[in-house]
């Protein structure tokens, strides 16, 4: 079968202009990227699923790439806004439901989509970030400040302008390399008095799963859009905690496969590994399969073939349902 071209267009959804990339035709698979990424993070999955009879759609999420970035404050970047963008996108695409794949922040958005509008999701494959039940006791930023201090990246990202000022010391390509080529030794906790972006090192050579040209594509978009939109997702975390109070204790009912790299810094830290392999994760996501594979955080790019096969197998078994 000949390779189908990626088609780019802009659509209106939830009051913003959203850039989407499309490839193939058939049942819809919606891909949601993380930080600091774009639709382009899913290039391998989109081509693969299109060849196997699916309609692959990957947006630049609110504030990213060629999608509109509502101006400050961060209150325009809650999970309600982002999930609303996705629901509106499905309506624009003429689809009542979709298979959904999320990674990093895209996984968090996908979890919330399944909580708020499970009727919109046929099945879910999430990468890297598990579903964490809402703590009734303490806001997340306060909890992370107590545990990891001011040097933790999420805490440094809270103050408007702080991370932007630190990022401005580097060109966009260097920032992409610092984040996308991160390894498990980089815990995203800066030494006292230092910004986290300064503490991240760039490897002497690129890994085989990404090229200089691909990194340059990411960089060109962030050079244009900046980082305030993406950083606002982190700045809305405590507000999300407040807004999600009515869903305290709610569970994910959608059939789900969770895939994580064994070298992912998030999996290796913060107690995530024991949570994922223990009983609590499945208690909150009862219809769950967990797969731990060899790899790091950006697993859909690093281990594209294995991730592709898992997505196709999981969704293929549910296409006729």
Automatic annotation (TrEMBL):
Pathway: Secondary metabolite biosynthesis; terpenoid biosynthesis. Its EC number is 3.3.2.10. It is an enzyme of class 3 (hydrolase). It catalyses: an epoxide + H2O = an ethanediol; (24S)-24,25-epoxycucurbitadienol + H2O = (24R)-24,25-dihydroxycucurbitadienol. Keywords: Hydrolase. One of its GO terms (molecular function) is epoxide hydrolase activity. Residues 27-138 form the AB hydrolase-1 domain. It holds the Pfam family Abhydrolase_1. Belongs to the AB hydrolase superfamily. Epoxide hydrolase family. Epoxide hydrolase involved in the biosynthesis of cucurbitacin and mogroside tetracyclic triterpene natural products (e.g. siamenoside I and mogrosides IV, V and VI). Cucurbitacins have cytotoxic properties and exhibit deterrent taste as a defense barrier against herbivores. Mogrosides are nonsugar highly oxygenated compounds used as high-intensity zero-calorie sweeteners; they also possess pharmacological properties such as regulating immunity, lowering blood sugar and lipid levels, protecting the liver, and acting as antioxidants and antitumor agents. This is soluble epoxide hydrolase. It comes from Amborella trichopoda.
